Amino acid sequence: MSEMTIEQMSDQYFDVLKEIGNIGAGNATTALSTMLGTKVDMKVPKVRLMEFKEVGTTLGGEEQLVAGIYLVVDGDIHGSIMFVQKKESARAMVQKLMGMPSDSDDFTEMELSALKEIGNVITGAYLNSLSTLTNLTIYPSVPDVCIDMAGAILSVPAIEFGAISDKMLLIQTDFTDDDDLSGYFILVPDEESDAKILHALGF
Amino acid sequence: MNVCKPPELITTIGLGSCVGIAIRDKHSKIGGLVHVMLPNSKEVKSSGNLAKFADTGIPELVKRLEKMGALRSRMVAKIAGGATMFAFQSKSELTGVGDRNVAATKQALKALNIPILAEDCGANYGRTVTFNPETGDYEVKAVGKPPKVI
User: Fold this and answer.
1) Which of A58, A85, A199 is nearest to A147 (CA)?
2) Distance between CA atoms of residues A166 and B24, nearest Å
3) What does the alpha-carbon distance between residue B145 and residue B141 come to, in Å, rounded to a whole number?
4) Catalytic hit among B1, B18, B62, B121
5) CB-CB: which of A62, A156, A163 is closest to B13?
6) Listed residue (B69, B63, B6, B7) closest to B34, CA to CA
7) pLDDT digits over A9-63, tens only?
8) pTM, entire model
9) Residue B18 among the catalytic residues
10) A1 occurs within a structural domain
11) Of A63, A146, A166, the CB nearest to B49
12) Could you confirm whether domain B2-149 is CATH 3.30.1330.200?
């Protein structure tokens, strides 16, 4: 089982990750709704394994400006997790949180900090559901945020994946109220952790 | 990885910690660009894609240029990229992958005796690069910064 690469993952494992994504997104939606003080809906997350290049296209091209929130995971499993959103979606979320519109195109220190917190809540919700389902201890690091071209941001998890494969696992989560707040999780467990997650889930 | 002759240009979009290496034969104006993600193909299991690594991608590009008629003795290089996009990335290892990509790139070019004429590497932002093999101009664009030609 430890020899299994991400390409060979069974449909069942995908279903499990989707379900974890679903629960995680559910928790995240509740947390977001509380934070933002508005009703937030979500759609069933889509889980896809795709080529590094396709991910950029999915986000609207490699030059599309995106906000990436990245953190590393330690404990029983090791890896990293990224939450990435189009810049406009990130801006919409931050403005809802801060409760004031901003006329500037750039994010202030305060807004970046708010964005980090949103990312923290969302990735935390996901990791929580993973930890609960698998009984594995997972410690997330403090997140860092970066706003730049999709290609440049996505190269970070892609490089982690690059050491193993040319593909990455993408979980699309659509949060909606009036604005499009959709975002994507990118999970990068190392090979050993993949096996541990599978094992913990009874595969 | 791609090679071309004037008037064609080659571009690669959104280099983060990756490095874009442009090599050109000054005389025949044959040029090429390779986008490497990782420094060393020997450190990873699946090293099938030669263009992904500095130590294999650069020799491969040189080989392809030679096939088109370029001479190695006339080749010069310009490099860009190798950023550290997230602050803590560099803490997990001694140096971040961006810096290691740049170091491996320089080493690979040195081993092939190809001089580096210009570079725009490091810092914390992504770059889109366009290479013109006719003039050797290497245009570097970054978000919120004026484009520059190195």
Assistant:
1) A85
2) 28
3) 7
4) B18
5) A62
6) B63
7) 667 777 777 777 778 778 888 887 887 777 878 777 777 777 777 777 877 888 8
8) 0.80
9) yes
10) no
11) A166
12) yes
